[in-house]
């Protein structure tokens, strides 16, 4: 039981963490690319854009590690590019023309949308059973409605506690399933990049 509870908490944490990393990737790449492109007529824009594009392999490796830790899904190793001893401008040209960088950016920015859905599920899967289970205490403090009816007696709140205990198991299974989907998404990213 303790192991199941810890796994459930870890799943909820990973779903919340997916939203946080998705938001970070979206903001980082949106601001970095917009700033790099808008300053590209100066000497600052191209190095900034090159730096932003070089972060893709680091973030993909980070996603691999997180996927292995939380979903226990092993992915293929992502082969990052080797930096050639050439002039900076030639390296910048290679980074800008490498289609894998742009694919990784698309996949990582898409994680914001997936993370938003994961956030909604994480809150619903964790808060709903908890509120139902704590209904005998909470109905004294605040109004609790269940299918439009006000829970205002101890008997009704104990019934809600029973329902909350019963829906905890499907919430646990659904959280496991969602974490597996996130792991498969990371595997799909790396598989598409390896082509």
Distance between the termini: 43 Å
Number of strands: 2
Reported for the largest beta sheet, the result is: 2 strands, antiparallel
Low-confidence stretches: none
* Silhouette: elongated
Q: Which structural class fits the helix and strand makeup? A: mainly alpha
Tally of domains: 1
Strand content: under 5%
The side-by-side strand order for the widest beta sheet comes to 1-2
Give Rg in angstroms.
23 Å
Mean pLDDT: 84
Order of helix and strand elements from N to C terminus: HHHHHEEH
Summarize the structure in words.
It is a single chain. This protein has about 200 residues and is mainly alpha-helical. It has one domain (about 1-195). About 80% of the residues lie in helices and about 5% in strands. The chain has six helices and two strands. It has a two-stranded antiparallel ribbon with strand order 1-2. A hairpin with a 2-residue loop joins strand 1 (about 145) and strand 2 (about 150). Helix 1 packs antiparallel against helix 4, helix 2 (about 45-70) packs across helix 3 and helix 2 (about 45-70) crosses helix 6. The model has no long low-confidence stretch (mean pLDDT about 85).
């Amino acid at each position: 039981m303790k192991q199941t509870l810890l796994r459930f908490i870890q799943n909820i944490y990973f779903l919340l963490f997916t939203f946080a990393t998705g938001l970070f990737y979206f903001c980082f790449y949106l601001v970095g690319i917009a700033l790099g492109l808008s300053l590209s007529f100066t000497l600052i824009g191209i190095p900034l854009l090159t730096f932003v594009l070089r972060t893709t392999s680091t973030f993909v490796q980070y996603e691999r590690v997180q996927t292995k830790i939380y979903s226990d899904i092993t992915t293929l190793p992502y082969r990052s590019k080797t930096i050639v001893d050439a002039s900076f401008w030639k390296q910048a040209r290679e980074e800008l023309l490498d289609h894998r960088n742009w694919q990784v950016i698309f996949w990582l920015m898409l994680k914001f949308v997936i993370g938003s859905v994961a956030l909604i599920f994480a809150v619903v899967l964790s808060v709903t059973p908890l509120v139902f289970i704590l209904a005998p205490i909470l109905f004294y403090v605040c109004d609790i409605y269940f299918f439009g009816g006000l829970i205002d007696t101890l008997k009704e709140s104990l019934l809600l506690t029973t329902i909350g205990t019963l829906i905890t198991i499907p919430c646990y299974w659904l959280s496991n399933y969602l974490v597996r989907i996130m792991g498969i998404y990371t595997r799909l990213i790396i598989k598409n990049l390896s082509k």
